[in-house]
Amino acid sequence: MTKAPFCGVTATIDVIGGRWKALVLFHLKDQPRRFNELRRLLPGITQRMLTLQLRALEQDGIVTRTVHNTIPPHVEYAFSKKGWTLGPLLDAMEAWGDANRPRGRRAG
């Protein structure tokens, strides 16, 4: 089997692909969010899946994780400098989805 040549689209999908990553990033694009806030914004995602997605995004350098030393302590997730470069891509995805929404689906 021959290995496919490098493709930028493949690299992008490797980082933001899947059911949840793009949605997590969409909700982080306007402001940092706490873990439970993200859970509320993403109905249907399990705690474990959100944890896995955030860890993967953090490992890829897209998201930063900040632990605030408060009582009780809380963790906040935000775009990294590298993550901010995805902003135009997420905006384009949102615009395309709004313009090409499948029939029978309303804005949510």
Main CATH class of the domain at 17-91: Mainly Alpha
| Percent in helix | 40-55%
- The share of residues in extended strands comes to 5-15%
**What ranges have pLDDT less than 50 throughout 5 or more consecutive residues?**
none
Task: Please count the beta strands (DSSP E, at least 2 residues each).
Answer: 3
CATH superfamily placement of the domain at 17-91 = Winged helix-like DNA-binding domain superfamily/Winged helix DNA-binding domain
Terminal CA distance: 44 Å
Mean pLDDT: 90
Taking all Cα atoms into account, the compactness measure Rg is: 16 Å
CATH architecture of the domain at 17-91: Orthogonal Bundle
Helix and strand string, N-terminal first? HHEHHEEHH
The profile of the biggest β sheet is:
3 strands, antiparallel
Q: What is the subunit arrangement here? A: single chain
> Tally the helices: what do you get?
6
CATH topology of the domain at 17-91: Arc Repressor Mutant, subunit A
Broad structural category: alpha+beta
- Mass-distribution shape: globular
Read across the widest sheet, the strand sequence of neighbours is 1-3-2
What structural keywords apply?
alpha+beta, single chain, 108 residues, Arc Repressor Mutant, subunit A
Secondary-structure blueprint:
Elements lengths: L7 H9 L4 H8 L4 E2 H7 L5 H13 L3 E6 L5 E6 L1 H4 L2 H13 L9
Antiparallel strand pairs: 1-3, 2-3
What does this structure look like?
This protein has 108 residues and is of the alpha+beta class. It has a domain at 17-91: Winged helix-like DNA-binding domain superfamily/Winged helix DNA-binding domain (Arc Repressor Mutant, subunit A, Orthogonal Bundle), CATH 1.10.10.10. Helix content is 50%, strand content 13%. The chain contains 6 helices and 3 strands; from the N terminus they run ααβααββαα. It has helices spanning 8-16, 21-28, 35-41, 47-59, 81-84, 87-99, and strands spanning 33-34, 63-68, 74-79. The protein has a 3-stranded antiparallel β-sheet. Strand 2 and strand 3 form a beta hairpin.
